[in-house]
Amino acid sequence: MALKPRARNARLLMVCLVIACLVVITVDFRQGDKGPLEGIGRATLSVITPFQEAMSKITRPVGNFFSALVSLPSLKKENDELRERNAFLESQLSAAADLQAKVTELEKDLELADRIGGGEPTGAFVISNGVSNFEWSITIDKGSDDGVQVGDAVVVSAGLVGRVVRVTGGSADVQLITDPDSGVAGRIGDTKETGVVLGQGERDMKMEGIDAAVPTSQLNGKIVKSVGYRIGDQSNVYPPGIPIGTVSRVLDSAGALSKYVTIAPVVDFSALDVVLVVRSGTPG
Amino acid sequence: MRRTVSITLIILTALLLQSTIFGEIRLVGARPELIYLVTILLAMMEGPSEGAIVGFAGGMAQDFLLNQPKGMTALTLTLLGYVIGTLRQYIVTPSPWLPVILAGIGTFAGVVFYGSIAFLLGQLDTGWGYLLKVALLSGAYNALLTPVVYPLLKRVSQASSARRVFRW
Question: What does pTM read for this prediction?
Answer without folding.
Answer: 0.69
